[in-house]
Amino acid sequence: MPLIRPFAALRPFPEFSSDVIAPPYDVLNSAEARELAKSKPWSFLHISKAEIDLPVDTNPYDQSVYQKAADNLQRMIEQKILTREEKPCYYVYRLKMGDHQQTGLVAAASVADYNVNRIRKHEFTRPTKEDDRVKQIKALNAQTGPVLLAYPSQPELDALLEKVTQAKPVYDLIAHDGIGHTLWLVQEQQTIDAFSKGFDAMPAIYIADGHHRSAAASRVAKELAKPADDMSRYFLSVIFPHTQMKILDYNRVVKDLNGLSEKEMLEKISKRFSCVKENRAVAPKTAGEFGMYLNRQWYRLNIDPQLIPDDPVARLDVSLLSSYLLDPLLNIKDPRTDTRIDFVGGIRGLGELEKRVDNGEMAIAFSMFATSMSDLMAVADANKVMPPKSTWFEPKLADGVVSHLLD
What we know:
The chain is an alpha+beta fold. It has two domains: 4-247 and 396-405, Alpha-Beta Complex (Conserved hypothetical protein from pyrococcus furiosus pfu- 392566-001, ParB domain), CATH 3.90.1530.10; 250-369, no CATH class. 30% of the residues lie in helices and 24% in strands. The strands form five sheets. Strands 1, 4, 5, 6, 8, 9, 10, 11 and 12 form a nine-stranded mixed beta sheet that branches. The chain has a six-stranded antiparallel beta sheet with strand order 15-17-16-19-14-18, with helices on both faces. Strands 2-3 form a two-stranded antiparallel ribbon. Strand 4 (90-97) and strand 5 (100-110) form a beta hairpin. It is globular.
């Protein structure tokens, strides 16, 4: 079966697009979603976070939430807020954040290729979150949150995407957070065939964000057990050239120094890192470099190059910091479960690190150099898993721009 296919999307009528699109379901808690959707009856949050339409104490994993999501989806179709495309199409989707923009293809990606790792993973999934997405897909008979994928940039496909954007878009809007979302419809059969052929020639594409959504799609497809060419065996995705993807730093803060004094901490760090005081916040400029904020003082740390291994996971900056500082000095053995460590997305800025240390909530903070897409792809190619909180992708895809109905 082909790696990707066009599909007949469910999407807003253009005049309602700005009312419908919403942040991804997993970047807001229930209270934030409830507030954002206030006085917005057509916000997609009524589908992706349907607990906002139920009593405040409702468990977001309760079956009533999935039923409410299905009811809300049906209501938006009946009220002609959402419409189904008449025939299978591709779409070109551009995200814009400040001076950064990235342009990718909206497509239905093959579950079969996901299952054999042609659509490559780099994270473990959590059963609770996976189960949630399975229940959501089954209740709606649709996938409403796209998986963010990357393909190894190819001039021909990159140029084809750019060519589509010369036409008039079906949507061109700015969300509440200032992110631009623009969508073009690809109906011409010659262009559809060119995209299909170009992607099918690729040995692999890569999950950037959306491991739980893709895993859930695989489970639903297996359960439904429909023919191999059925649309239930494909999942909603947006695929960008890897060179256009933007990964921000994913920084660390720790509550205490594990019984060490400040002097002892600096002495121990200096055995594996060069350690230089800086007069301003340190944003690392290269791999192997870290910023450290301790007692209202910034330091620039550079790891001894001889300590950097060849292994694609062990050589990641998040791994190096864990192996040579967080574990041996601060006794952070498992960042997934240790409550003494927390993670701060780079979108919040380095001032957030200073704030959390200065107010006494945390004792020490580390700013990171962002993981590269090349590193992510190398880990996935090696069939390995990245450490937790290795990547923070921005800008985010919106929910509600397009959805994939399973029949």
